Amino acid sequence: MGEEARVSPLKNFVAGGVAGACLLLAGHPLDTIKVRLQTQPKAPCAQYVLYRGTYDCFRKTVTKEGVLGLYKGMGAPLAGVAPMMAISFFGFGLGKQLQQPDPNKPLTHTQIFLSGCLGGVFTTVIVAPGERIKCLLQVQASGGSSRYAGPVDCAIRLYKTQGIRSVYKGTVLTLIRDVPSNGLYFLTYEVLKNFLTPEGQSVSQLSTPKILLAGGIAGILNWTIALPPDVLKSNFQTAPDGKYRGVVDVLRTLLREEGPKSLYKGFNAVFLRAFPANAACFLGFEMALKGLNAFVPSL
Ligand SMILES: CC(=O)O[C@H](CC(=O)[O-])C[N+](C)(C)C
């Protein structure tokens, strides 16, 4: 079997880190807008709404805070997204390797989905605290106050005041968001890659526009199932302590106060970001993998 066909979780790990950096650079500005829209307080009437939509939030953020305002809270994901994607791609590679004792036998769609889910379980260990810190920082600027000086200050203060439980607040919702969405993410990408590969060619020869297309669509489908738990997670992680009794309570409160549409809050920002960010992510992954296959084939 050629080096390119062999699944190497380690190569996936390194290439996944590059993918994460690409994902972040292309996607963070719209992620900030998404979190601000998702967590803005409910206004008594339309006149007092802080942000009327994606463009309004973009415009107000840039006017008040400059372009750098869109990159607020990037410190935590910068340290978190590259390792997160590295672990995600590693878990996916490991899942594939574990389920494929015979490398010449292709995996079923269910096996690919489960491999992706494994990546989601692994990443939660760093994603849950990373998201808690990122969301708190993203929201504090839009609220006008600056309680935390940065990601490290935020992590230390959460830990000092309420211990590790506070740092990991929102773990269950992170698992609910990331396990199935990770499965769908990788399944979509693999299915599209095979579909877009012309007869008789290897998937590793797929052209850049086709990689971008497959990655972008994988990102969009991933968010169609990830967004409702993401809204619950953002609200839960940024709420004052004691506001919600648990996952079901956030869901009930949101449905009661704002209706089912609230589960798709930030929809425009999420879907505007999903395609370019994930297209860049998978392109970064494939290019890094090619480099590794050429320079360190035995990894
Ligand atoms: C829901 C989510 O975080 O999706 C990630 C891509 C993105 O758009 O941020 C990918 N992954 C499912 C691997 C976490």
From TrEMBL:
SUPFAM superfamilies per UniProt: Mitochondrial carrier (SSF103506)
Stated name of the protein: Mitochondrial carnitine/acylcarnitine carrier protein
PANTHER family the UniProt entry points to: MITOCHONDRIAL BASIC AMINO ACIDS TRANSPORTER-RELATED, MITOCHONDRIAL CARNITINE_ACYLCARNITINE CARRIER PROTEIN ISOFORM X1
Solcar repeats: 7-98, 107-195, 206-291
Localization terms from the record: Mitochondrion membrane
Primary location group: mitochondrion
InterPro entries the record matches: MCP_dom_sf, MCP_transmembrane, Mitochondrial_Carrier
Stretches that traverse the bilayer: 12-30, 74-95, 107-128
Family note: Belongs to the mitochondrial carrier (TC 2.A.29) family.
Membrane protein topology class: Multi-pass membrane protein
Keywords: Membrane, Mitochondrion, Repeat, Transmembrane, Transmembrane helix, Transport
GO molecular function: O-acyl-L-carnitine transmembrane transporter activity
